[in-house]
Specification:
The protein is of the alpha+beta class. The protein contains four helices and three strands, in the order αββααβα. It is globular.
Length: about 90
């Protein structure tokens, strides 16, 4: 079993500038939803962005410590556009 904070730490190791939110979808410690905001996503397709995140989680995914992962990846500009400061 992997905790949401451990998932976030693994992503952070691969994408040091990332802002990350991870939620455990089932409470079982193997189904997660993650939102990752990183400048490393600039100019990349969604598939390429997700590949960067999956690369950071490769070991946990291969061992099935993480069974399922839903991803939302955003560049900082996309994040700002979705969340304007009032």
């Amino acid at each position: 079993m992997v905790t949401p904070s451990q998932v976030a730490e693994m992503i952070k190791a691969g994408l040091p500038d990332a802002k990350i939110q991870v939620d455990d979808l089932t409470g079982g410690g193997d189904h997660y939803q993650a939102r990752v905001v990183s400048a490393a996503f600039e100019g990349k397709s969604r598939v390429q962005q997700h590949q960067l995140v999956y690369g950071a989680l490769k070991q946990a995914m291969a061992s099935e410590a993480i069974h399922a992962l839903g991803l939302e990846t955003l560049t900082p500009a996309e994040w700002e556009a979705k969340n304007p400061v009032a």
